[in-house]
Amino acid sequence: MKFIVTPEIFEKLPNLYVGVVVAKEVDNSQDYPKINELLNKYMNFSQERFDGVNVKENEEIIPYREAFRKIGINSNRYPCSDEALFKRLSKGKDLPHINPLVDLNNAISLKYTLSMGTHSLDGIEDNIMMRVAQPGDNFIPLGTDKIEEPDEEEVFYAVGKYVRTRRWTWCQSEHGKIIDQTRDVFFPIYGFTDVNKDIVNKARTDLAIRVAEIFGVKTQVGSVDRNHPEFEWE
Predict the structure, then answer these.
(1) Phi, psi (5° rounding) for residue 230?
(2) Rounded to whole angstroms, how far apart are CA atoms 185 and 21?
(3) CA-based Rg of the chain, rounded to a whole angstrom?
(4) What is the per-residue burial (b if ≥16 Cβ within 10 Å, else e) of 42-54?
(5) Contact 189, 114 (CB under 8 A)
(6) Where does the pLDDT of residue 145 fall: very low under 50, low under 70, confident under 90, or very high at 90 and above?
(7) What is the rounded CA–CA span in Å between residue 28 and residue 99?
(8) Whole-angstrom Cα distance, residue 201 to residue 221?
(9) How far apart are CA 42 and CA 111, in angstroms?
């Protein structure tokens, strides 16, 4: 199976860099105190860091807002995932504990100020692609059975015709969501070759080690950029 970023994405974002972590046979149904502690630690840190701060003006958030602009997304209306997390925390609100994989994703995102995602690989046979909308694509918002059609030229993650995240990192669908029964997981970590590639790689290593240690499974890591637009895992 592969993760593929299509050429039209790199035409819009030539400096896009995505770190990847894949893990299989995870038990996501248990409680893992180490993950709870990690998320609480970086929630508290972030609340202090962004207290009274305009998140969208942070120098580590600006590159994501600029990338959204380049691919036609209004980041004021549809903020990238890390900006949304920090905005919530800057208002003194905690992040909900959802399940171990999602909580670990959020903790690493907060620690490194990076936009990230989590996708279930359970039952998938097609490749995961970051691409623009095509006729017949469909999106089902979380918690509903309503089918939405994405906008023309909208950028998102998809498996076949099933859209997983609208507007790149903004909103996840019923397809690919992480639940307690999720066994196989794909984490994309977004960055830019000329901005924070090294930080993405540090976060990727950190995440892979924690997943391996906490869940007791093997992980596979890789990356995608303009010169290497595909990553294949076993």
Answers:
(1) -130, 145
(2) 8
(3) 17
(4) bbeebbebbeeee
(5) yes
(6) confident
(7) 7
(8) 10
(9) 6
